[in-house]
Design goal:
A hairpin with a 2-residue loop joins β1 and β2. The protein has 247 residues and is mainly α. Among the domains are: 82 residues, no CATH class; 86 residues, no CATH class. The chain has a 3-stranded antiparallel beta sheet, with no helix packed on it. A two-stranded antiparallel ribbon has the order 4-5. α4 runs antiparallel to α5.
Length: 247
């Protein structure tokens, strides 16, 4: 049954429950000027089960359509529509629920795994590609070099040992900030180490051309040059920054 017929069946069920005898609904009766009841013809909405008079005006009894074919209240003398249901006709039963159609599950296609490729659904490796492509010997050598770099102690120049740098604001009511020079040296060394890592990544990048590597390397060298001010903190010359030659 179509959706319009479903709505029509529900409206008929409500009318049937409200009518006497559980089945037939008496046609609406309007009292004319002489008190005679008004009976509607088969081509008028007044003889349809879905029209119900509730008021009366100059046009006669007016009321709504339960299916909302016409909006608002209209007289029973209006012409019937394609959903007309005679009051003498039997009330149609409620439509049965439509069966739910389920699609059959398709067989899964065979999955092809490439050698060395991660399994589908596996979480991505937290290691960068340059580490996963290393052999066992290369990986061990990289760890040894990293340990040697950590063991190398960057020493503060003797004249600065125990010293501090004071940041004095221009407002006399604001407290100055004192930073130990060994803590400042530690921060500077961290910046230097990160610039070195960046430099290595630029030189080893596969998608950069040689011209692009040289261009980006110049920016790193200029950063080194800006940090040469802090060379006075280093005891050993090998730990100091080197900028552009002749700059």
């Amino acid at each position: 049954m179509a959706p319009d017929e479903n709505e029509r069946g529900r409206a008929e069920a409500r009318l049937d429950e409200a009518g006497p005898g559980g089945g037939e609904v008496a046609p609406p009766v309007a009292t004319g000027g002489g008190g005679a009841p008004r009976v509607y013809g088969p081509k008028e909405c007044g003889s349809c089960r879905l029209w119900k008079p509730i008021l009366e005006d100059a046009r006669g009894p007016i009321g709504p359509c339960l299916l909302k074919v016409r909006t608002g209240d209209f007289p029973g003398t209006a012409p019937v529509c394609e959903r007309y249901l005679s009051r003498a006709a039997a009330v149609p039963s409620a439509p049965p629920p439509e069966p739910v159609r389920r699609r059959a599950a398709r067989p899964a296609a065979p999955t092809v795994h490439r050698a060395g490729a991660p399994a589908p659904g596996a979480p991505p490796s937290p290691l960068p590609e340059e580490l996963t492509d290393m052999t066992r010997e290369e990986f061990a050598q990289a760890i040894r070099e990293a340990l040697r770099e950590e063991e190398a102690d960057v020493r503060l120049a003797p004249k600065w040992e125990g010293g501090s740098i004071v940041l004095k604001p221009g407002d006399p009511g604001t407290q100055p900030k004192e930073i130990p020079l060994d803590a400042l040296l530690h921060k500077v060394v961290m910046i230097r180490d990160r610039l070195r890592v960046l430099e290595q990544k630029i030189n080893g990048h596969e998608k950069l051309t040689d011209a692009e590597k040289v261009d980006m390397q110049q920016y790193v060298t200029r950063c080194y040059g800006s940090l040469t001010t802090f060379n006075v903190l280093f005891r050993d010359e090998k730990d100091r920054f080197v900028g552009e030659k002749g700059a």
